[in-house]
Amino acid sequence: MKRAWLGSLCLLAWACGEDAASPAPDPLDQGVIDAYAAPPIVRDSGPSPDLLRCATDEALIEGRCVPLSGADQGIRPRDLGVEGADAVIEGADAVIEGADAVIEALDQGADAVIEGQDQGVDKDAGLDQGVDEGIDGGATGCGAPLDPDRARIVLVAHPFSDDPEVPGAEISLIELPVEGDTARILSRVDLGARVARMTFMPSGRLALISTEDGALHSFDPARAQVLDTLQVDEVGASDLVAHPDDERVFVVTHNVTEASGVFTARVDCEGRLSLDPAHLGLRLCPAMALLPQDPSRALLLGGQAGFAPADSRDLRLLRWEAGRWIEEGAFDIWGDFVSTTGIAISPDGRAALIPNGSPFSDEGAQVLVVGIEGDQLRALGRLTGMEDAMQARFAPEGTGLVTLGEPGRLVVITEEGGAWAERTRISGVGLADQLGIVRTGRGRGLILAPAIDPRQGARLVVLRELGYGAVETVLIFPLGEGLTAIPGAVAVAP
Question: Which pLDDT belongs to residue 453?
């Protein structure tokens, strides 16, 4: 996924602090949106992440990392029982000493210590302990719905450590107001393994993180804490797709045997994870997308293989039935190998964008537009000149977006008169292989692209969809210097 990083001598020179020759200005940098015309807009960048790196057995409490022990011991992986007189209450970290104490968990994520009998709960305990309900607290189906106009917590993975031989395992938590024009780093958390993919559950209450060791983690962004860990496969996810029911996430893995494919994990209100026995075994699956109008159906890219048993079919329509995915149809749309970090289906469910950035494919540097008509798929057109095309996404108003890694561009794609075409390219988003998009509230249309550039360094580029086909840059937020600042996967609550 990160071949472009390691293949760029200029990038490595920047990361190691060495002088590198400045590349000649790109004409596109002076075109549609000039990301370098003015200094980045940065206000209140917050404390240094070096001071706020919490381990998995610590919680971020009032700006510092506190060991999870004694009264601070809350929801931990597989540790949600009643032990002696101590009980962990759903939505609160409550240590109950004595008997007959009744706690009504009105404040999701609060730390309440109750001593003796019949003592009340401090309703402000959550805010006193750094749990801001206005950012990420509560959940649809698991408590009060979140305020759609709240500030969002953005998760950005960092795949490199100070030692080039040791994979990076940290993620940054960044607070982003709905205006998108400021940001601040809250903390960095060590997950113990390099992140492969991340996504938020639709309610925004929890994030799901897949690491390259094949584990899936439920993560509470408000407390900067891993809640549970589940071993899913031997490799990390190539895609994570959350279902609108806020209870299921589909883990797509990419391997040469049918032991990979699509796994179904479930997450409850406390963040506990379980794996459904139903598994769709399929080889070489990089990406999946649910149909927006009918999330019981999905489009899956995968299964094509030139080795025995050979299979030329690369796109599959799936239907959820009797607790498992079944194949509605398989189609041979591509003629050669396909490499992508994400596919997308238009909000009306009529078309899908499938990038192919493979340098080894005769059909590389293309974006295929596929029409979805009932249980049939057909190619509507191909957009060429898409060097290192990586991930496709649709913004809320239907604007198509495709990241180009090495060229450092975000391509805007629209449909006009039944034909799909490139509308413009936005510069300044170098090596962004993933996007995060806010889809509700006043932050609707914010687009997040983790990026790196030899001139500007590691940063989070924040854009906004102004209307169909119109996108502008709102903020370029620096993430730091050196190898440990390089961003990878990104996720934001929708």
Answer: 83
Alpha helices per DSSP H over 283-386: none
Residue among 108, 110, 77 at smallest CA distance from 95: 110
Give the H/E segment covering residue 15: helix 9-15
pLDDT at residue 441 tops 80: yes
Cα distance between residue 171 and residue 418, in whole Å: 41
What is d(CA 285, CA 283) in angstroms, rounded to the nearest whole number?
6
What is the spatial distance between Cα 4 and Cα 326, in angstroms, rounded to a whole number?
Answer: 36
Sign of CA dihedral 275, 279, 280, 284: positive
> Which two structure tokens, joined as six digits, stand for 187?
């903390």
- The pTM score is 0.76
CA-CA distance, 457 to 266, in Å (whole number)?
Answer: 38
Q: Measured between alpha carbons, how far is 239 from 249 in angstroms, rounded to an integer?
A: 10
Contacts of 255 (CB under 8 A, 6+ apart): 233, 234, 235, 283, 284
Cα 74 from Cα 187, distance rounded (Å):
19
pLDDT of 7-29, one tens digit each?
443 444 445 454 444 444 443 33
Within a 10 A sphere around the Cβ of 219, how many other Cβ atoms? 25
Q: Measuring CA to CA, how many Å separate 426 from each of 102, 412, 476, 479?
A: 56, 8, 13, 20
d(CA 192, CA 198): 15
Residue 464 CA to residue 171 CA, distance in Å, equals 24
- Give the amino acid at 8: S
Q: What is the bridge-based pairing of β-strands 287-291 and 294-301?
A: antiparallel
- Rounded CA separation 334/389 (Å): 15
Q: Which amino acid is at 99?
A: A
